[in-house]
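Exam revision sheet. Question 4 asks you to relate a sequence to its structure. Input first:
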Amino acid sequence: MSARRASAWTAVAIAGLAWSGSARADVVRLPPIASDFRARLAGTGDGAVRAKVVDGDRQLWLRADRGATVSVAGAEGEPLLRFDRRGVFVNVRSLTAAADRVGSVHRRVALDPGAPPSWLRLTAGHAFLWHDHRLHALEPLAQGRGAGVVGRWAIPVRIDGRQSAVRGDLVYEPAGPVWPWVLIAVVLAGAVWLGLALARSPAHGATIGAALAVTVVVCALRIGRELYGRPTVAGAAYAGIGVTTALGILLVWALLQGNRDIRVFAALFAGLAALFEGLVMFRVLTHSIALSVLPTPLAKLAVAVALGLGAGLVGIVLRGLPEAEPAESAAALAARR
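Answer key, structure tokens:
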């Protein structure tokens, strides 16, 4: 094996492992991927506060004007959060803060909603995002019901001494059937397998075309998830998008190489990465709302394509990697003489 070929194989292997490792990180963090519920905002009642629901009905983002003092009450009416000129603080005695793990604070004081608050600063900024179960507490009421508003929710706030609330409603959207998307995946996998069966080599153009297509699809799925639903996109998300794009470009480069060994290895890693990403994002197919910047139907199609083409491309393993042409036998050489 030449040094150039070994370097190319190593580069492709690193790309595939990095994609798989990135997908595994998504699983470990268990981020919301899809939902059947959407918490909608009806308003905050005061221009000094801006709010946004994140991840369907999982989290609430609140931003207060720099000069305003805003207090957010917990489920028991106890002080939960405070926004002021110095930043955002959590009451470590709050039962709601403990139950919802607001700020993931290690608490060394007794929980007592009736005791004077003990404030711990979470950030020097003036915005905060936290999980608040009041947004989705009404979900059980949707059982046996059709699509529509399940109920209304309210989170009491006090703005510069004035009583107000962040209000909204919870909407249920039942998921449609899964079988059309599974059928698409099966048809695509079957098409790739058929192409492998008819081709004389797993480096056939149809296989490489499928690998190129699924590489683009995986990049779109990952970037769509990174950009979804946050009031501001963090630098880490942009870094993740950059890494995803760079690895996608590396795989495309490998798939377009003249050496068929490199193309087959690249197609194999693209297939493995696509299959993994499709499994990670499978909940998109079983729920009505994809938590992605991609429209839900497009996200569902992308997941089905990733699963189908990924499963088909992994068939390269069963066909075996390309081998060198066998040397002529001694009998054949003698016959030629």
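Marking note for examiners. Residues 1-12, 20-29, 321-333 have pLDDT under 50 and may be disordered.
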